[in-house]
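Re: export button greyed out
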Amino acid sequence: MTPLNGTIENVLLGLMSTTRDVLPVIGVIAFFQFFLFRRSPDNPRRLVPGLLFVVVGLYLFVEGLSVGLFPLGETMAMQFAQPDRLPWLYAFAFLIGYATTMAEPALIAVAVKAQEITSGGVREWPLRNAVAFGVAVGIAVGVHRIVAGDPLYVYIITGYVVVIVQTPFAPREIVALAYDSGGVTTSTVTVPLVTALGIGLATNLPGRNPIIDGFGLIAFASLFPMISVMGYATLAKYWSRGATRARPPANDKES
Amino acid sequence: MLRQFARMAFEILRDILPIVLVISIFQLAVLHQPFPNLGGVVGGLILAVLGLFLFTQGLNLGLFPLGESLAFQFARKGNIWWLLAFAFTIGYATTVAEPALLAVAAKADQISGGVLDQFMVRSVVAFAVGVAIAVGVLRIVLGHPIHYYIIGGYVLVVAVTHFAPIEVIGLAYDSGGVTTSTVTVPLVAALGVGLATSIEGRNPLVDGFGLIALASLTPILAVMLYGIWVY
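Workaround output, generated via the alternate export path:
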């Protein structure tokens, strides 16, 4: 048990560190707001607590995960990254990809925004699940690539081709959001655990070079959600079209 | 009020639950190992839940309105150059200090024995993100569909991959993923959507998103080009 003053010092340092990460954003915004527009931002009474909550909340979230989850997850990643545990490895990769994405704050934010501007047309929960499924498959495929020793660009280019082929068929409204979801989801929670998995694999598999094989999992985690979100939206479009055709015409008795 | 809080608490627990379950099941049922430091784990998770709750509140109170208000003000001002300058600076500033990028760059520096200088990697990536946000904002204003930009970007990436030294390829593809931080994503999303809302003839859903996608793409190109230069 660390003495209380040690803990307080750690908390202050942690908060300072998180604030320092946010400072560039605040700085740029403040510069443009006050020097270009020459006025105070709208609603400062909500803005300041809001920003404070974001910083403190993010700090607590990251700290909480660093203490409660990452050490465990990283050790586990190392333990599963063995060639003789293959089925468990794929299961772990899939599930950890799914789970980290569902917890990803950045994705929650984007999904909430999407639901808001479409007034519920795009719903937050199905969107996040679609992204999470994509990441899960992506990590599993990425792990497989490392185990099999295949070159990275083959998979990536295939993935790009799939995205390009999917795009014309997907509902136009979802395309930009789908493209964004890959980049959004590789953030606070996903990156450390997935990186640990990749490094663990590269270390434990004989003949693997960490430079070449250790990186590359994040790329898979960014690529597959695009496919899964567009796929889900395309399916939803065709399903609802089928339902409209199959629905019997309105009965006068019911009106 | 209490009901709203309870619903929010439920949603956040629901967000954290999958991770907890996965780790627990694998630890206990598959690896047959007890939890080291169970108290710390539980405490950490409670902290994480609290933090996520605060974060989402802060988003709705401060970050989203800020992004939207900035978008409206730029649209009102009508000067494209200031908007592009803002977009570039936001992209650059948020990326250059990004902890995940620092970690990746340091690792690359170490693994490559110094050939890939970590400061250069960070600057190159930050520059690329700045360009991406600026281009993305320009796209919103002009109203071009996103897929032309992204697919064009993919073609470029594939072409450059052909020439890039193999040591950089994995790093390059990953650097696109690590740059979009938890704070910048909501802000940039709100900015994009806000712009698309305040400019006539633009659809917030179709045109407002896509900035993050671009910001994940350009670093790949930039890092590979840097790799070609130093190797």
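Chain A touches chain B through 101 residues (CB under 8 Å). The button fix ships in the next patch.
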